[in-house]
Amino acid sequence: MSNPPVWNNDERALLGDHCPEYVASGSDKQGFYTRVWAIYLHKFPVMPTEAKIAESSGDVMKAFRHVGCAQRRARRLAQMTYWFQNNGNRVAGERASGFGTPARVRVLDLSNKDKRKLQPGHAWLRLFYDKLEVKALYDAAWGVAHGAGWSKKKEVSFRNMWAAEQLEKADPETKALVDEYHEKGHLKDDEERYIDVEHGDDEDMVHAKRLQEYLDNLPHTLKHVAESLHKQTGWNFSITCGGPLPRAPNGAVNTLHSSGMFGVKSQPDASFDIHRLEYDISFDFNTGLNFVAGLEYGVFHR
């Protein structure tokens, strides 16, 4: 017999409604939990059991203050915290039109560098090394080399040299496959790791799937970027972007707003002014979206 669900449908709906706020809260998760906990208790109060009320001579408030009831509320709060930690980012992403849960949550590449082509020997390894017969040949060759004095630290160098030798004596068909992978294969790594390429997908479909995978990881990436910049500068960041989504009907244009809401520590006998700068900068990244970065910073003065 399976255990009953931790949350009923109404409770899950309430928690789901606050997932965008969870993502936007940035590093101020304690403030977020305090607000949502009060909302949850108002709608779904954790009441004392009938047995505990009877033990308190029918005094509900006395039973409510009992340590047993307080412990049950604390456990419920812990369950709510775990739920948001495990589901908050995913549900928030799903509720943004056209966005979904990626197969692998990751921060997108922010280096803005083109991927480098593989060396021909490395391309051969990528194509053939996982084959059982090739691994058996390599293991035999490495066993001989290791016995002849090659150290374990030098195995990578030996494997690269061995691969170059295999390519050198390969047939023309194998060399043609390696040349093709050398030219374009390094661009297809993301397809194999992050998206499901099905038989019959043409280049346009593969490109759309790759683009959607980037976009599905965009909310997670923007949150990571905003929090990282905040930690380094002390500024608050608000990022708004928009563009076509392959998954949306007819590629409709959607917008995504990600803001870092970070707490400001008070200082005695001081006031705090908020200043805002806006930069209208368009970026032509892999996502194809346009970004407008709004930066807020605060200044203390006495």
Would you count the extended β strands for me?
4
Q: How many distinct helices?
A: 13
User: Shape, please?
Assistant: elongated
Distance from first to last alpha carbon: 65 Å
**Element order: H for helix, E for strand:** HHHHHHHHHHHHHEEEE
Major beta sheet, strand line-up: 2-1-4-3
Determine the structural class based on helices, strands and strand pairing.
alpha+beta
Could you list the spans in which at least 5 consecutive residues all have pLDDT below 50? Answer: 260-302
What is the helical fraction, as a range of percent? 40-55%
Describe this structure in words.
With 302 residues, this protein is of the alpha+beta class. The protein has 13 helices and four strands. It folds into three domains: 87 residues, no CATH class; 75 residues, no CATH class; 88 residues, no CATH class. The protein has a four-stranded antiparallel sheet, with helices on one face. Helix 7 crosses helix 10. The C terminus is likely disordered.
Descriptive terms for the model:
302 residues; alpha+beta; 3 domains; 4-stranded antiparallel sheet; 52% helix; 13% strand; elongated
What's the arrangement of secondary structure elements?
Layout: H1 9-17, H2 19-24, H3 29-43, H4 50-55, H5 60-64, H6 67-95, H7 120-128, H8 132-147, H9 155-168, H10 172-184, H11 189-194, H12 203-216, H13 218-233, E1 236-244, E2 253-259, E3 271-280, E4 290-301
Antiparallel strand pairs: 1-2, 1-4, 3-4
